[in-house]
Amino acid sequence: MPTQNSAGKLKYAPLVLTLASVQIQPVKNMEKYIPEIQDELRDEYPEIVARRIQKRSYSDDAPPEITYEIDSWQLATAKRDWVVIIGRTNVTLATSANYEHFSSFAERFSDVLEKVSRIARLKSYRRFGLRQIDNISPFGEHGIDELVDSRFQPPKELDDFTSDFRQTEVHYRTEIGRLVLRALYSYRESSIPSVPENLQPLLVSLLSPIEQKKVNEVVLLDIDHFVEYGELTELNLENMKEQLQMLHIGARDLFFNAVTPDARKLWKGEEA
């Protein structure tokens, strides 16, 4: 699993998925550029899969006509622990890999974006975000209440009408944009999705599935830090490198505010 590298490397970090995504100007004929993009990225991402979606068209007194259209292209490393997703309106890099420092993730994303933008002649974008997913479960003899800050813990007293899951969501404004923390709790002996539902298709792209937690308590932390513009803005690669670093700092700081000092010590391999 990836490691977060603030205040020392977390040897047992609960981070399971990291992704950076930029919403670009629409490119209706993106398939025209895919062969050249693949040539540029083949050394690092030799696998390629086209994702198709089903479309239905209706006419009077006739059964629906079903067609399939390519929605996006996924290029993956040989181990399939890094995935590049190129759509007509977005470019995304996602990983479940054990990268040493965030800088290595940022370099990969910048390299992908430079090549895609050069080949597809991208000039503008509307939204740029970094998302990090953590699965926090009891660590040794240490329970959730010792790992997760009290503000983001599940309620202590439950009744028979309480569902198996509960979610809270908090929004913040930052210097660069907006920061959202979603905490999904499981507090009965059942499984919780390892990533949010809207990211489930990514798991299909990853050869080694992210472990499904089956313990009494799990907290899924979903941290989304993004900048969004009301209209398309110029795509400047150097500016976006700086933005990505700021997005990372905000997400990292929020994560460390959502967990306890004892959790940080335990995940670093120190005694709490």
Q: End-to-end span in angstroms? A: 22 Å
Total tally of structural domains = 1
- Provide a count of the helices: 6
How many strands, what sense, and barrel or not for the largest sheet?
Answer: 9 strands, antiparallel
Structural class: alpha+beta
Numbering strands along the chain, what is their spatial order in the largest sheet? 2-3-4-5-1-6-9-8-7
Number of strands: 9
Mean of all residue-level pLDDT scores: 84
Order of helices and strands: EHEEEEHEHEEHEHH
Share of β-strand residues: 25-35%
Radius of gyration: 20 Å
Structural shape: globular
**Which residues form runs of ≥5 with pLDDT under 50?**
1-7
Helical coverage, percent range? 10-25%
Organism: Marinobacter nauticus (Marinobacter hydrocarbonoclasticus)
Protein name: TIGR04255 family protein
